[in-house]
Amino acid sequence: MTVPRIAVVSAMREELHALHDDLAGARIERVAGRDFHLGTLHGRPALLVLAGIGKVAAATTTALLLDRFEVEAVLFTGVAGGLGEGVAVGDVVIGDTLLQHDMDASPIFPRWEVPMTGRARFAADAAWSECLAQAAGASGHVVHRGLIVSGDRFVSTSSESAALRALLPEALAVEMEGAAVAQVCHDFARAFAVMRTVSDRADDAAHVDFPRFVNETASGLTRRIVRAAFA
Ligand code: SAH
């Protein structure tokens, strides 16, 4: 019997490249412009793939990997803008629930609800999220758990992040893919988790903080947490 794989997906190369050093026996399958790297990660069958940035890129990649490969769970990992009070650059945020902050078919459907699904929030796998939170905490990070919101916008002004905080006060972080992955995994009835490290505060300094953090830290940090979680 084949053991189902864990898929680790990121938007950008900077977020995933260090994990490739841990992927043993890798071979590549190329589908729709994406390279699916199949191998074993810390002894478990795994798949690493870059999705690209934004909800459509993330949804396409997630649907492809769930349809084509025997994947039991998806981990989306990368960086995000901190929204919640006390969510600082370098902290880890685990998404217990995910919502698309730019989904709005009101007044036909309630704001944020994904039409025809009856829901705005999609829940991540509790056990897996707990395991990642433990691993991140054990490797010395401040860990926050709760709502992550996604939309097709790099939030890089203090006025926009303040507006998001006012509308969704419980949102801890904002990024551009997590809720799309959540919706696709829901359709496929497959477990997922979203783990983000905070690269910026989604404010007027985000355009400076983001590249600095992404280039220096993002990928190595994910590698350490994934290694601890898989051990
Ligand atoms: N200018 C950048 C654009 C990256 S978009 C570039 O050229 O590469 C930002 C990426 O990081 C997305 O994948 C998103 O998920 C995440 N992210 C980090 N901070 C964010 C923020 N403040 N708002 C939205 N997404 C953010």
Walkthrough of the structure:
The protein has about 230 residues and is α/β, with parallel strands linked by helices. The chain has a single domain (about 5-230), classed as Rossmann fold. The chain is about 30% helix and about 35% strand. It has helices at about 15, 55-70, 125-140, 160-165, 180-185, 205-215, 220-230; strands spanning about 5-10, 25-30, 35-40, 45-50, 70-80, 90-100, 120-125, 145-150, 170-175, 190-200. A five-stranded mixed beta barrel has the order 5-9-8-6-10, surrounded by five helices. β3 (about 35-40) and β4 (about 45-50) form a beta hairpin. α2 packs parallel to α5 (about 180-185). The longest helix is centred in the first third of the chain and has 14 residues, at about 55-70. The radius of gyration is 17 Å and the shape is globular. The two termini are about 20 Å apart. The model has no long low-confidence stretch (mean pLDDT about 95). It binds S-adenosyl-L-homocysteine.
CATH class assignment: Alpha Beta
Quaternary organization: single chain
Strand order within the widest sheet?
5-9-8-6-10
State which percent range the strand residues make up: 25-35%
Low-confidence stretches: none
Which ligands accompany this protein? S-adenosyl-L-homocysteine
Mean pLDDT: 95
Radius of gyration: 17 Å
End-to-end separation in angstroms reads 22 Å
- Largest pleated sheet: 5 strands, mixed, barrel
Report the helical percentage: 25-40%
Order of helices and strands: EHEEEHEEEHEHEHEHH
Domain unit count: 1
Architecture per CATH nomenclature, i.e. the level-2 architecture: 3-Layer(aba) Sandwich
Global outline? globular
Helix vs. strand class:
alpha/beta
Number of helices: 7
In the CATH hierarchy, the third-tier topology is known as Rossmann fold
Beta strand count: 10
